[in-house]
Design a protein that fits this description.
Blueprint (H helix, E strand, L loop, with lengths): L10 E5 L2 H23 L5 E3 L1 H4 L8 E4 L6 H8 L4 E6 L7 E5 L4 E6 L5 H10 L1 E3 H5 L6 E2 L4 E6 L2 E6 L4 H8 L3 H17 L6 E4 L6 H11 L1 H10 L2
Parallel strand pairs: 3-6
Antiparallel strand pairs: 1-10, 2-3, 2-7, 4-5, 4-11, 5-6, 8-9, 9-10
Helix pairs in contact: 6-7, 8-9
């Protein structure tokens, strides 16, 4: 079940159990393995979300983002083709991304063309961490799907509401207030109308390449062509 936005008016301290710490260590060990393989191929990457913040649960995924367009061949040589490969575009005006599901909880994402600044901010908004940060056991602040700011402390984290505090939260995370307002709007709409879905999801067969399918999609979809054209100016 999707987490619902929460309007928290105070601060709440969450202390982690030994089981929580063990789960975090396990997820981060896997993230380090994948990100180290990418690094060896000179492909920079970040983990983002709960693995970067530390507030993991039994259902947490390991989400890894490559922040710049890169040949899918290089990515797959580095980490493998996994159990599922797909192209996803959230809306007609957003970047087309490749997803490689390495297993049932590890996903490597990369853009097929360059991110716009707001799209890059999305990952900082949720909390992102480099390979070096993971190795040094760092945790970072970020906002979860309940619209709560998660700020790490030694024994766990402190969480607080972001509604009414958008400017303060944006400053802490180093992002624009616009991304804060956008995420509030999107998650509240999702809560009101249910899962809103994505504009495009295309699963690849084993013999298809990301760039090959992306070109076919571009040739058949005027909205995608316009989006790519705007980003090349």
């Amino acid at each position: 079940m999707a987490e619902k936005p929460e309007n928290l008016h105070d601060f709440r301290v969450v202390e982690y159990t030994s089981q929580h710490w063990n789960r975090l260590v396990s997820l981060r060990k896997r993230a380090i393995e994948v990100m180290a393989s990418l690094s060896q191929s000179n492909i920079p990457s970040f983990t983002y979300g709960s693995v970067a913040r530390g507030d993991v649960s039994d259902s947490s995924d390991i989400d890894i983002i490559i922040p710049h367009p890169v040949s899918s061949y290089r990515v797959e040589v580095a980490v493998g083709s996994g159990i599922k490969r797909e192209l996803v575009q959230a809306t007609p005006s957003t970047v087309l991304k490749g997803h490689i599901h390495l297993d049932y909880e590890t996903v490597v994402t990369f853009p097929l063309f360059k991110f716009m600044p707001r799209e890059r901010e999305f990952y900082r908004w949720g909390g992102q961490l480099s390979l070096e940060g993971l190795k040094s056991q760092k945790r970072v602040s970020g906002v979860d799907k309940r619209l709560l700011l998660i700020e790490p402390i030694d024994k766990g984290h402190v969480e607080s509401g972001i509604i009414g505090n958008e400017a303060r939260v944006a400053k802490i995370l180093g992002v624009s207030v616009e991304i804060a307002n956008e995420r509030i709007r999107v998650l509240h709409r999702r809560d009101q109308v249910g899962r809103t879905g994505v504009y495009l999801t295309r699963r690849l067969t084993p013999d298809e390449g990301f760039e090959q399918v992306a070109k076919a999609l571009k040739d058949s979809d005027p909205a995608l062509r316009r989006t790519i054209s705007r980003r090349r100016r």
